Amino acid sequence: MTATHKIFKNAWICQREKRRIKPVFGDIYLSGEIVRRVIPKDFNAFSQSQVDKSEQSMKNQWNMAGRVLTLPLINFHDHFYSRLAKGLPVTGPQHHFLQILENLWWKLDQELDEDMIRAAVHLSALESVRNGVTTIFDHHASPHATRGILKIISDTVRLHGLRAVLCLETSDRHGIDRAKESLLENRQFIENDTDNQILGMLGLHAPFTLSDDTLITTAGMVKYLSTAIHIHLAEDKHEMEYSLKNFGLTATERLDKFSLLTPKTILGHGIYLNQHDYQLIAQHHSAIAYNPDSNMNNAVGLPEYGRVPKEIPILPGTDGMHANVARSLKQLFLLQRHQGIAFTDAFQWMERMYFDSYQFVSQLFPDFSSLQEGDRADFVLWDYIPPTPFREDNFWAHWIYGILEATPHTVVQGGEVLLEEKKFVKVDPSDFYPEIYRQGERLYTRFRKLGH
Asked: CA separation (Å) from 189 to 23, 44, 220?
């Protein structure tokens, strides 16, 4: 079969070269899922030409009219299942984080069934594409819907043309049998249902809900499957106090004790870490995924971002609150400034997060694009036309104050157009929203009954 050729003309193409971004104005030619050629053009000639600017897009050829084209965003800590939580009739106090878990999230995940989960994944995928996110590391929880659930999630994600790294949360709070069942589901999924589009990790809730026996079993699976864990760590003071009181170790030290800190490990949140914790994480090059909106929403506090050693990869997440990774990135920049971090250092921290993200994801997807010729054709065209010169030495100022404030205009994944001029191409959202509402209504009804 002959590969379909596509041309995206007149864009600022932000190519990644190691840990540098080099904007090139020109045209990008695709052949199937591959970037076949990048043709530089004279931006001044374009800006003064009425011909190029008035060109109309046509089949397999798009005029980008001077907009910025970058690599797609990655969500390193999401919870698909949380998407149906909006507007639920929650009862019980929510004065601190443990009460939020007990009266909302730990009730919600026990009510989920396959139909609700499938609907939540559809909603998450639509939101992700709309926000320029095409690779998602999801951390799922549904203790009463475990067997085969990761296959259901992966099949749903595939319908939307996205890549994902999936896992099912393991916890001892429902008993040892449930914990074993969750680990088995992770293992069977990794062994039988993953490929170069959908991968798996071992999901763990948080160390304070995990026994040593479960961590020992997990460690054996990590080694056997050559995989890593995706876990919440140090999200709240309670976890650290509980760990010291009951195990005589910090939560980080417990993970290290069982050899669960690896270069592919994702640690969600990482708020209450001491210097020794940071040293252990840095020693193993495990990554911390930051979720600022969730942390502020739960009033659990924020990390001191300036204390994080440079050896630790830092990644952006949303913790299921939304799919807008650009918002998380901008929030992280502003929080650094709020904490008194100098502009120069805050810019460098954002630059570090950007490159850490693509370096980390390339461990799992070695073909992740850099927008060089011969790479996979994965990119987001932002509805942002630079109002001043756009160069390598001022890219980060445009990124923080312009691009992250814009919205995706066009999204391409593996050469396939998912979003064009802010309209879905691969799927029709109206096919999913009625069912999303039906399942949300079912969950709402169940929550009302819980309150009586």
From this structure: 40, 52, 16
Task: Please enumerate in sequence order all residues whose Cβ is within 8 A of that of 341, keeping only pairs 6 or more positions apart, or say none.
Answer: 305, 306, 349
CA distances from 185 to 178, 182, 193, 260 (A): 11, 5, 11, 19
pLDDT in tens, 345-381: 999 999 999 999 999 999 999 999 999 999 999 999 9
73-364 matches 5-66+376-421 in CATH topology: no
DSSP code for 55? P
Question: For 41-89, how does the pLDDT look when each residue is reduced to its tens digit (9 = 90+)?
Answer: 999 999 888 555 555 566 789 999 999 999 999 999 999 999 999 999 9
Tell me the domain boundaries of the chain.
5-66+376-421, 73-364
3-state secondary structure of 293: helix
3-state SS of 122-171 is: HHHHHHHHHCCEEEEEECECCCCCCCCHHHHHHHHHHHCCCEEEECEEEC
Does domain 73-364 correspond to CATH entry 3.20.20.140?
yes
Class of domain 5-66+376-421: mainly beta
